[in-house]
Amino acid sequence: MELSLGSNLGTVLACILSFLAAAFSSAGGVGGGSLYVPILNIVTGLSLKTATSFSTFMVTGGTLSNVLYTLIILRGHEKGGQPLIDCDIAVVSQPCLLLGVSVGVICNVMFPEWLITALFAVFLASATFKTYGTGMKRWRAETAAARRILEGGSAVDHGTGEALLGQKEGDGRRRQWVDFVVLVAIWLCFFVIHLFIGGDGAKGVFNIKPCGVTYWLITVAQIPIAVAFTACIVHQKRKSHTQNSQESDQAISVKSKLEALPVYVFPIAALLTGVMSGLFGIGGGLLLNPVLLQIGVPPKTAASTTMFMVLFCASMSMVQFIILGVDGMVTAIAYAITCFVASIVGLVVIEGAIRRSGRLSLIVFMVAAILALSVVVIAFSGAARVWAEYTSGQYMGFKLPC
């Protein structure tokens, strides 16, 4: 009876903490997996494998809520009816992001725990400081703009028109649907591959021998698939942007810096983000959002686009776990619903704060705070695992992928 009561209290506490983590993560535009796994593992006592599988449900619930809220609720607040999600960035980056995750998972198996923990701490600490610096620059720019307004001048409204698609509304919507169909096609291709070989803690459904010839042929096939998708998408985007030269001045001002970048910047950034995501065993949102901010994507667009991309990654693992019949499915769905609701709460709160203050830099500071919290939580849990390996005399060197 006492054990059952303790278990129920642990579940309730985990739901409360997950709700707070989901609201916090959604406001910053990251998936939250780096916080969900430690909560489930420490508070409820779930194994790391089960906590990881539950986390995919929670990330999917939170990102789905975020994307729906952005498309349905926030759409009307944007000038010209343009959505905040930049489908150009999403569709160009998604193939390489999924490929990078697969590469990172293999590296995770090969690298020793101490090296992964060290790399994780160094990278996220650096990302925290850079993101904080980006937030401070934007805060100072917003302060200067507000001062000019008070002095009778004018300032560019950074709170609207952040969508990077500058086409006429009808043409923009048509292209967004085409991009969505392409993203679904990419999702299906990589999902079928993962059904064969497994991934993200889930086994394949066809019992292919790990590291056999068939296994490696299917695994390596992800490279030409990702390259082919990316090349075709980039070619089509260049063609459509050349044909469509009529854009509003506001759209041009937002896009000019990004379009000046080489075309391969987003695919390479997505590939490296995916590798690090798979290597560190965390969701891509925590890494992708800071990368987009450093490239120069506006905060709202970076947050919304990141959540859109993470939805495709997380849902792939979730559907795979459903097909395989993960233990505790009802509990996993309950956690997912909790994160779904919490994500809306987080968005409503941050949107209200932005409207009242007129400062989009709040999103950047939120990302920096989540990065800092994730460094502490995961670095300490990783250090604990390293210490346990050391004291038990386990092998702590590099390993083969199989």
UniProtKB/TrEMBL annotation:
InterPro entries, A to Z: TM_pro_TauE-like
Bilayer-crossing regions: 51-72, 84-105, 111-129, 177-197, 213-234, 263-287, 307-326, 333-354, 360-388
Gene Ontology cellular component terms for the protein in this record: Cul4A-RING E3 ubiquitin ligase complex; membrane
Predominant location: membrane
Keyword Transcription tagged: no
Pfam families to which the protein is assigned, alphabetical: TauE
Localisation per UniProt entry: Membrane
An annotated GO BP: protein ubiquitination
Family: Belongs to the 4-toluene sulfonate uptake permease (TSUP) (TC 2.A.102) family.
Protein name as annotated: Sulfite exporter TauE/SafE family protein
UniProt organism field: Oryza brachyantha
